[in-house]
């Protein structure tokens, strides 16, 4: 058990190894049925071929753009054989040192107004902008790991491309890497980046041009982070030794997390990386076990884990300032949110095995911890109930309570814009702020409230669509639904019909404590000196800035609501009877 000495832990695990596999064949078959029915089965040949064909289209563009010097590698869920119907295709563009991030991302917008500039720009971003099959394109440079995100006309999945420039390399060839020991070669690249970062740190202390050195070091760190995710997957796959049960367990855990609405990294829940490490830990402890046994052990292990004891599957690399440690993360949390703040403690750390190690659940907070622990506990209790094996699996994966039935009170957060670039810019910022703001919102932190639970919806609420389609022929919209868990909710009941006035009053509070705070943060960080330090605004940012200025000028009049270029953030409580209509 967690807390035991290593020798005691090994003895405990050996004692618990699966011996009796009777009836597990039927349950294994049932689990495979559940995966297939819910779009989480192992990839068939046709689907895998389609993904690889579209991957190769982008790989060809990168080869042409870099004159054969760079290459593209598949990462993420495709690499782990855990791709699902709603997965993104994660990739990494690895380049030699003469190709830098500014050549990858470029600076010119992908917009008709800048066609001539983009045609003369030698960046990969502009090359993709003019690709006939690319119909959606974003550069997301404010992320911890910056990336280009795109969609192809004939392909249902988004493709994310992160970037790494490797010191001392003249040419990168993925086919050549695969013919050699790819793990060893990637580790050599990581070593080169690590050594270069150390050298830049030393030079930064001795030289006057610290700004340029700091920028160079930051670019190296971003390359290292990009490569670290790929390295982690390689290490993980090496450790599980192509155990097919690992892939099935990971797919089942993804399905379980999604059916419990706890699969969304940005909102502070699990993602594929964290579930991959958690699943690998169980497979390593029980290497000969069947999938049903592994599933039961997963919920037993993590429902009783002594959090915040980190979950690890590899030793942390010693003697490096870049490796993960609990103390540094705690200091970072304290510096960001202050002592006693909602984020000031480690919650459910799950450490990736690749260098530099990182906490894949860093965004989990005190609210989402409660929700995740509740789901783990419920699954553990179900497995130890008197129900039959088939009943347990059906209840775990197919009979979960729908989100609109879970809570007694709900509000929706809607971000809307008049064009795709403004939408990506403004609503892309909003999505990073919701998680934090919910931990500070009075309606989520009152004494009678246990937590708030947020999910992303598809599409736009009818009331928003009706309002803005009068102004713009096309709107871009993203909505999050938040369920409020009351401490005294012993049974979820329908709200009374006389709640209209109370909801209106709460809407006013939401505007002040949620919408206004996020918008003001964007004005400072997105449009002010908080992020760019006075750098020129791009076209979308200029339009948003004009929109806010016009709003201030015509506040409270029809003119404020009738702008051709607009963004808006609006939160409002939803009558419980109408929540199902939004989902």
TrEMBL record:
It catalyses: RNA(n) + ATP = RNA(n)-3'-adenine ribonucleotide + diphosphate. One of its GO terms (molecular function) is ATP binding. Residues 246-399 form the Poly(A) polymerase central domain. Its EC number is 2.7.7.19. GO terms for biological process: mRNA processing. The keyword Ribosomal protein does not apply. It is found in: Nucleus. SUPFAM superfamilies: Nucleotidyltransferase, PAP/Archaeal CCA-adding enzyme, C-terminal domain, PAP/OAS1 substrate-binding domain. One of its GO terms (cellular component) is nucleus. It is an enzyme of class 2 (transferase). Keywords: ATP-binding, Coiled coil, mRNA processing, Nucleotide-binding, Nucleus, Transferase. It comes from the Eukaryota. Gene3D superfamilies: 1.10.1410.10, Beta Polymerase, domain 2 (3.30.460.10), Poly(A) polymerase predicted RNA binding domain (3.30.70.590). Pfam families: PAP_central. Residues 183-210 form a coiled coil. The keyword Nucleotide-binding applies. Belongs to the poly(A) polymerase family. This is polynucleotide adenylyltransferase.
């Amino acid at each position: 058990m967690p807390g035991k000495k290593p020798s005691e832990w090994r003895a405990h695990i050996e004692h618990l190894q699966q011996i009796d596999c009777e009836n597990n064949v039927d349950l294994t078959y049932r689990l495979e049925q559940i995966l297939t029915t819910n779009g989480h089965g192992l990839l068939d040949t046709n689907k895998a071929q389609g993904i690889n064909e579209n991957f190769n289209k982008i790989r060809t563009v990168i080869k042409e753009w870099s004159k054969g010097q760079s290459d593209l590698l598949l990462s993420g869920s495709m690499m782990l054989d855990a791709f699902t119907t709603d997965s993104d295709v994660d990739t990494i563009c690895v380049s030699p040192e003469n190709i830098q991030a500014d050549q990858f991302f470029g600076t010119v917008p992908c917009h008709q107004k800048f066609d001539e500039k983009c045609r003369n720009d030698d960046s990969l971003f502009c090359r993709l902008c003019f690709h006939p099959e690319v119909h959606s394109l974003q550069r997301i440079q404010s992320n911890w790991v910056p990336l280009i995100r795109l969609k192809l006309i004939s392909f249902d999945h988004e493709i994310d491309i992160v970037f790494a420039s490797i010191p001392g390399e003249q040419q990168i060839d993925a086919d050549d890497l695969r013919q050699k020991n790819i793990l060893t070669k990637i580790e050599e690249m990581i070593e080169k980046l690590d050594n270069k970062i150390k050298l830049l740190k030393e030079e930064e202390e001795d030289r006057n041009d610290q700004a340029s050195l700091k920028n160079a070091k930051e670019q190296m760190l971003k390359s290292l982070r990009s490569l670290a995710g790929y390295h982690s997957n390689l290490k993980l796959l090496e450790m599980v030794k192509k155990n097919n049960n690992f892939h099935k367990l990971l797919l089942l855990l993804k399905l379980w997390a999604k059916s419990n609405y706890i699969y969304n990294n940005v909102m502070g829940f699990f993602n594929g990386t964290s579930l991959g490490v958690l699943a690998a830990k169980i497979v390593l402890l029980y290497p000969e076990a069947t999938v049903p046994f592994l599933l039961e052990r997963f919920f037993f292990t993590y429902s009783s884990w002594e959090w915040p004891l980190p979950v690890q599957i590899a030793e942390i690399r010693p003697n490096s300032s870049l490796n993960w440690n609990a103390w540094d993360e705690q200091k970072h949390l304290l510096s960001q949110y202050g002592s006693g703040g909602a984020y000031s403690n480690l919650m459910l750390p799950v450490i990736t095995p690749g260098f530099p190690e990182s906490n894949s659940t860093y965004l989990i907070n005190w609210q989402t911890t409660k929700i995740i622990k509740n789901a783990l506990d419920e699954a553990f209790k179900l497995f130890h109930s008197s129900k039959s094996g088939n009943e347990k699996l059906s209840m775990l994966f197919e009979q979960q309570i729908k989100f609109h039935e879970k809570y007694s009170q709900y509000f929706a957060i809607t971000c809307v814009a008049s064009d795709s670039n403004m939408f990506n810019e403004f609503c892309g910022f909003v999505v990073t702020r919701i998680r934090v703001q919910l931990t500070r919102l009075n309606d989520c932190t009152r004494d009678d409230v246990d937590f708030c639970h947020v999910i992303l919806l598809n599409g736009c609420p009818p009331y928003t669509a009706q309002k803005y389609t009068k102004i713009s022929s096309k709107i871009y919209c993203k909505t999050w639904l938040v369920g409020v868990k009351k401490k005294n909710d012993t049974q979820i009941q329908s709200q009374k019909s006389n709640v209209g006035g109370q909801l209106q009053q709460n809407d006013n509070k939401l505007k002040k404590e949620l919408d206004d705070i996020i918008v003001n943060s964007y004005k400072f960080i997105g449009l002010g000196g908080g992020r760019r330090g006075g750098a020129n605004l791009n076209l979308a940012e200029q339009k948003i800035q004009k929109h806010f200025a016009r709003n201030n000028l015509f506040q409270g009049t029809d003119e404020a609501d009738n702008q051709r270029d607009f963004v808006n953030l609006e939160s409002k409580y939803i009558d419980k009877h109408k929540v199902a209509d939004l989902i």
